[in-house]
Structures are given as C-alpha cells and as structure tokens.
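The data are quoted verbatim for completeness:
=====
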Amino acid sequence: LDLAEKVLQTLVCVILGLPKTWGIYPMTSVLRSHSTVSHTLYHHIQRGHVLVRPDLASLGPGKKVTFTDGSLGWYDGIVMATGYTFNLPFLSKNDREHVMPGVNEL
C-alpha cells in the first residue's frame, strides 16, 4: 500500500473499528473490497441488532445450530446473505430442499 492508502485505511479502521472486531473477515485490505454493500451493517452489529456468527458446522435436530467454533444456538431462521452460491453438503437431499427450495433442480 502506498502512504495515502495506509493513511485512509487507518482512518477507516479508527472510525469503524477493525472489521474482525465485528466478526467480519475480508479477504483483502479494507480499501480493496467491501465485506458488505450495506453502509449500515457496522451500525447494526455495534448495537446488537445483527449477530455475526462463525461458519455453520451442522443443523438440527430441531432449531439447533452448531457453529465451527463449537458454539450452539437455537434459531427460527438463518439468513445466508453471502452473495455467492452456497453449498450445504452435510445436509441430506430432503433437508437441502427444505432449507433451499429448488436447489436439487440445479
């Protein structure tokens, strides 16, 4: 990074905090790509309106969700807002159809 980018990146991190503070792990520097297109995401994470969780390890039984860090939670719904095609190979074909209608037609 050149000096101007370093200064700007430092300012962004001072104002918003480091992305990893909020559970967001961008693959590149803060200025090279956006971890989200939402300009209000950090605001909602900071106030507890949005919970950022680790990757899913498994679903069920019932509403139980196990995360890759070993933590558990019980949820009515899961929003997978990645912007990418996702795959849940640990689910049975029937469960994938329930979670992602039409996925078995792909």
Notes: Strands lie at 56-59, 64-67, 72-74. Residues 63 and 76 are 6 Å apart (CA to CA). The two ends are 42 Å apart (CA to CA). The chain has a mean pLDDT of 76.
